[in-house]
Fold this protein.
Amino acid sequence: MREDDTHYMKMALMEARRAYALAEVPIGAIIIDEEGELVATGYNRREIDNDATAHAEMIAIKSACEKLNRWRLTGLTLYVTIEPCPMCAGAIIMSRLSRVVYGGYDVKAGAVDSLFNVLSHPGLNHQPDVTAGVLAEECADLMKKFFRERRQAK
């Protein structure tokens, strides 16, 4: 873990809280360049957009590509509050992000460490550096609170 990982994960958590406020699954993501500048942000918007692909990571990746006018995101780091799913892991590989930092594990859909190891698969042409567990408890607690409230509302 790098010294500034906690700082940037707190920024991703702010994005997750934006999703939470909109009754979306509270996952947030940000993309930072090598100088530590914020390039893009995203938070889950599946319900709002009626789009199965509107995950925080996908939104941040698309935004970074548009802002930088390129699809190769080499040199950039993605911070995301929860371990990426298979779809998002695929987008991370395809966009050539150099590094991925995530908070909480996702034992039901995680494609970095929990269920699959997509980002480190030797058969793929790109393997980003991965740091797991940054502010894991805080990231997981937000998810637990969200789903507890949903269950109680039913």
